[in-house]
Structure formats: C-alpha cells, structure tokens
Amino acid sequence: MTTDERPRVTMDEITALAKRRGFIFQSSEIYGGIGGFFDYGPLGAILKRNVKDAWWREMVELRDDVVAFDSSIVMHPSTWIASGHVANFSDKMVDCRNCKHRFRAEHLPSLKNCPDCGMGDTLTEPRAFNLMLQTSIGPMEDSASRAYLRPETAQGMFVNFKNIYQSARKRPPFGIAQIGKSFRNEITPGNFTFRMREFEQAELEYFVPDDGNDLAAYEQWVVARKQWYSDYGVREDRLRFYELTETERPHYAKAGTDVEYLFPWGWGELESIAHRGTYDLDAHMALSGKDLTYFDEASKAKYTPILIESSAGMDRTTLTMLVDAYDNETVTDPESGKVTTRVVLRFHPKIAPVQVGVFPLARNKTELVERAHHIERALRGHFRTQYDEGNVGQLYRRQDEIGTPYCIMVDYESLADGTVTVRDRDSMHQDRVDATQLRAYLGERL
Ligand code: GAP
Hints:
- By secondary structure, this protein is an alpha+beta fold.
- It has helices spanning 11-20, 42-61, 78-82, 85-88, 154-159, 161-168, 214-231, 279-288, 314-325, 366-380, 392-402, 412-417, 438-445, and strands spanning 24-26, 38-40, 66-68, 90-95, 102-104, 127-130, 133-136, 146-149, 174-183, 198-208, 239-243, 255-263, 266-277, 294-296, 301-303, 306-313, 326-332, 339-345, 356-360, 385-387, 406-410, 419-424, 430-434.
- 30% of the residues lie in helices and 29% in strands.
- Helix 2 (42-61) packs across helix 9 (314-325).
- Glycyl-adenosine-5'-phosphate binds next to strand 10, strand 13, strand 16 and helix 9.
C-alpha cells in the first residue's frame, strides 16, 4: 500500500458503526457468535437489498438478453463431481499441535514456527481440506445421503442450460442471472464480512456462439461491470480491475479479470469476470450423458456455447459501500466558529438505506409533530423515509452516520408559511422549500 492509499477508516471503526447503527451483527451473538456467519440489522438488510437490486436492475431488468433464475441450494451430488468441486475445491491447511489453531498453509510465512503461540516444530504437514459444507438428505446419515450446500450459484444455471434456453426461447448470445446464498467452509474466515462461510453471490452466465466474437463479448462485460461500480459511486482510486495472467487463470480460461477494492487491510477481490470456454457445459454433458448443446434452427447445427461469467459477492460489495462511503470530517460552525468532527456515510442516494429523514424541531409541540408525521407519510411511497424526533444536533448526527442524503426539519416557520428546511448531507447546506414542492425537489436529487 502506498502512502496516498492509506485507509481513511479502520475495520474496528466500521464494525463498531455497523453494530451501533444496526447494519451488521455477529450471528448468534448471545451465544458467543459463530465464526464466519453474520446477520444484517434493520439498516444493513436494506443496504444489502439495495446493492442486490442495483445489480439486478442493470444486469437483468434493463437488458433484453439476460433472463432471471433461482436454483436450489442443495443439488444432486453429481453436480459437484462434474464441476470439479469434490476433487479440487480445497485449501491446504496446517494445524498447530500446541495451541490447536488452524491456518491456511498459503498464509504462513514458514512451516517452522506457529505464528500464534510461537512454538517451533508444532505445525502439522499441510493437508487438503475440502471447502464444501456437507449436509445429509433424508432420515439416514450415511454416505448415500450426503449432499452439499452449494459453494457457488453458477452450477444451477449450467445444469439447467437447456431448460432455460428452450423455455425462454433464447439463442446465444444470451445470459442467465441469479442472486443467492452460497456456502464455503473457509478455514480462516475473517475481515468482518469479507470472508464468510455463508454469503451471497450475484452471478451472470453469458453464453455466446463460437463465431470469433467471444473475447469481444468478454471485454464488453468488463466494461459494463466497470460502469456499474462507477454508477453507484465507488471511488475510482480505490477500485482496480486486475487482469489475470495465463498462469494465474485456470487452464480452460481464455481471459480473466478480478475486480478488487482497497480495504483498510489492503486489496480484496469483489468479483471475478472470466472467459470459461465450454468447460462447464462439457463437464456436465460428460458426467450426465445429457445433451446441453445449443441447436441452431437457422443453420441446423449443434454447438456448445462459450461461457463468459461475472461473479460478484454481494456481502463484499455491501462492505465496500460501507467502507467507501465512510468519512470522518472536521466541520466549522459558520455562526459560532466552533470546530467539531462528524462521521458521515456518503452513500449513493440509490444505495442509502434511508433517503429522507423527517423531524419536528421540538418533540413536545403537537402541531410540529403532527406536521412532520404528515410530511413523512406523504413521502413514504416515493422515497425510503424515516421519522425521528429528539435533540436536533443528535438527529442530524445520527442521520449522517447512517448516510441519509436529505433531512427535513419542520419548525415554527413551517406552521406559519408551509415551508420546511431541507438539509443536504454532504454540503450541510439548508434550503427552504415549500412542503407541497418536496416530492419534486427530492425527486430531482434522489
Ligand atoms: N462461479 C465463480 C465463483 O464462484 P469465486 O471467485 O470463487 O468465483 C466469486 O467467487 C465471488 O464470490 C468473489 O469474488 C467474492 O466476492 C464472493 N465470495 C467468494 N467466497 C466468499 C466468502 N468466503 N465470503 C464472502 N464472499 C465470497
């Protein structure tokens, strides 16, 4: 990390804010938590939903060449044999015989000393550890009933390729998209919601004909994904598109790009975009014996389409939005000259869990309270609104910390002339707006 890439925020600040304001909690916290699992609180659930909706809108709704899909989490175990997950989806792990801690071999600087207890010669030889979480189906817990919780959503789309293109009447180039939970028994989950054991993926599988335009299609998806992050305001200088070299990509992949964000601990992968050739469909055809080729009516020819995949982690993208939005700002009161600091989340308005906060100037003045409730109710169907009351300074502080772009204050002037103040989160500038014009005023800005 270079000096100008130094983090503006620590992960401790992010986790503290996430808990304090109800974005993310440790799962089963009252029982001491469970490693690699997290719960999204009232604001976090909306934030993550907004991230998923933003992905879905661009990748499915605004396109006529991508269809929606939603496959089951547990699939026939053969799926994972064909995909290579049973044989190869493993990390090398090392245990310390003294302190019993477990490490990923690739994370250890040497296999001589345990990095936690410092003892020498206590580490076991690296052993392969399969990352798929297992479950059993039916009343008997034997090897015949063993099944896996999917480690990626993609395979559901591959095994259904024929069902989908026939029922949706699509011909390549076309894509299939789904958002759903995936599970990986990570050896060392960590960095908050970055490496989890249960997480959500948004995956696009785009099938193209073998007509020489496959690399161009891959490039188009890289450009489209760059545009997506830019549209939702992720800082350009903290995002990079790293092109994998031939040795870094799987043997069957013709090209690959990792989308990475500069987190407080360094660069971390948010998404992988890959040209996967015909590998996945070929593997399922070989094991199932079923035909997953595309039959082109026009040319009366059968072929296996080439696959371009974009696979993004929704928890990592949500974490990116939180980290990227975080700002700790020094502000000077224009009247008193007093210098204070404020924490503000500068969320993109489409991502912000609350878009408009509405408050009465005094909670004990019935007319102000009723007017504020009335305004909030009138805006509720159009924006994500929240009514709140209390000390004015604290109200703004709280809305800044949850990233609300606009706050409306109902004061005594409002009762006299029907206007309210609207405060802009980022500039803290206040406008006086006629309450009847609020919907138009906010609509232009949100
Ligand atoms: N179908 C391709 C695939 O699954 P991947 O690079 O293994 O590719 C795609 O995963 C994305 O899923 C990653 O870029 C990341 O955002 C997310 N992801 C993977 N493992 C994760 C984990 N343990 N916790 C949170 N997100 C994870």
